[in-house]
Amino acid sequence: xxxxxxxxxxxxxIAAIGLFIGQIVFGLVMGLQYVIGDFxxxxxxxxxxxxxxxxxxxxxxxxxxxxAAYYMVPEESETELYSxxxxxxxxxxxxxxxxxTVLGYLFVPYATLAEMTGNDLLATMGREFLEQPxxxxxxxxxxxxxxxxxxxxxxLKGRKTAISMVLLLGLWGLAIFFLFSFYNPxxxxxxxxxxxxxxxxxxxxxxxxxxxxxxxxxLIKVTGVDREVIEKWLYVIITLTLVTGIIGTGHHYYWIGxxxxxxxxxxxxxxxEPIPFFAMTVFAFNMVNxxxxxxxxxxxxxxxxxxxxxxxLGAGVWGFLHTLAPVNYYTHGSQITAAHxxxxxxxxxxxxxxxxxxxxxxxxxxxxxxxxxxxVVEMWSFWLMTIAMVFITLFLTAAGILQVWLQxxxxxxxxxxxxxxxxxxxYWMREWAGVAFFIGLILYVISFFIKGESKAxx
Amino acid sequence: xxxxxxxxPKPSSRxxxxxxxxxxxxxxxxxxxxxxxxxxxxxxxxxxxxxxxFNTAQLALNRDAGALNTLLLLTASAFxxxxxxxxxxxxxxxxxxxxxxxxxxxxAFLIVKGGEYSAAFDAGxxxxxxxxxxxxxxxxxxxFMHVILGLVILAVLWNxxxxxxxxxxxxxxxxxxAAYWHMVDMVWLILFPLIYVIH
Lengths: 458, 199
Prior knowledge:
The complex is a heterodimer.
Chain A (H helix, E strand, L loop, with lengths): L8 H27 L10 H32 L6 H24 L2 H7 L17 H24 L4 H17 L9 H36 L3 H22 L12 H11 L2 H16 L8 H24 L3 H7 L3 H30 L7 H38 L6 H7 L1 H24 L11
Chain B lengths: L22 H27 L1 H9 L3 H26 L3 H31 L8 H32 L9 H26 L2
Helix pairs in contact in B: 1-5, 1-6, 3-4, 3-6, 4-5, 5-6
């Protein structure tokens, strides 16, 4: 670790992994509820489990991004963090607020929670992924602003690199686009616009900038390739991301009541969204092939390459699968969407955060890389989680194709629930793949506790 | 002829095969061409389904304005070539004026196209008025935005030329920017016949 203040990243990473475990547990519960409808009912209804599953994902990724920024920015800026104390205080505020929110979801009926938290003053609740009560939303804004202040001040007093600028742009975008979640117009069409301007412009816009910056940082560190080469790739990737991603928002406008030309604009530009992801794959492999040193942390290199491949498959290929308006007319909101959502989030954002944790955590614990034994276990966890996610995606895709056929294409279309019964076999297989994923995650956690001779600081 | 008046770069100045500009800009250009190709493909397939409607609407376009704009972009590209060759020969500062000429042609393109847009909007044409007009406005406006971006790049290059930043050993940025401009020009060379002429 080059700068003492980078150490504040550690609690963020630990919290991220802790919440990740929670997310997967709730995922497994929901997976079972797909096939055993009254499992844990009425203690934990499906809609609540789903809310916890998705909200935990977002919160732990945010912890991961913040931890990554606290680790990266001092090193990139070649100066200590502006205020490590503020970073630690924010950590506890965010953790307590996040925990309180999840407990609220679990133990208070949602409508009561809305009443208790001032939703009648400013109605922001009840929208998918943005279910957080008003105080939590305000808390997110305060934490994000204070975090950005800390990071921006650090950068202002130090060296400004392309990587840290792209990261900062992504993080500012993340905070700014979240503000749309405070506007919840009665008009449903308008409501959907604002909702997508948070959801889409996050995951298919500014988060991709964060992804690109994190990947570029780790690649510089583990390959020793010239910064100029890596930065050039980063520029190309983020330009392609923004051009395709921003207009690509149109692929959410097909059926919400927006003008018809969006079917063209949305189809054409979102069909190009895989290009920046493909560039990222080529980028990762190209840099590793041109490496000038053998970094002792093989696991981190594996995660970086895995991010390149899985982000392209999950976000790129599986996104393209149902992005064209004539296809989406049939597949909209089916299990195809769920298949895409799972692999895209895992391949792009989960894996890039794990890449950074894998690279930074040993250094934060005083060594260049973990012992060989620990790395072998970590690589096993990589393969288990990744292959399990491939199977989750394939089973959901199969379920989706069958669902679309039975429910929307066939001459004698079936009702929603009758169709669900027909695809139950795939849901069972998905659940078992989910169990394999969970075992992979446990192995990942275990790898942190495996001792053995570790590599000295490089 | 125009071509013969251009300087011919010394063949000895480069021995191995050379890619003009940076590899990164070429990847970017390929992505841009991909986007336009998808758009052109969609146009062609849709046109095949609505030939009569497309023909009627196409005949109402101002082909003279389109032809003038083609000439302007071609001239701009020729000027960019002269500026690049000037820098290559070591007279970049003097030949910066060619770049300025290219910028003027690009601006004139925007003015002509702006006039067409204004006439179209006065006639009540919008993205929702017909499938042809959706394509016409989308494709030309997407290209219009590229001309604007191209002009920003040319302005940066002009400034660099004036300050003598480019020379035989420092052509990367100049060639990269020039390649981007030529892409903008080339796309128009497909767009113009496709939308204005062929019916």
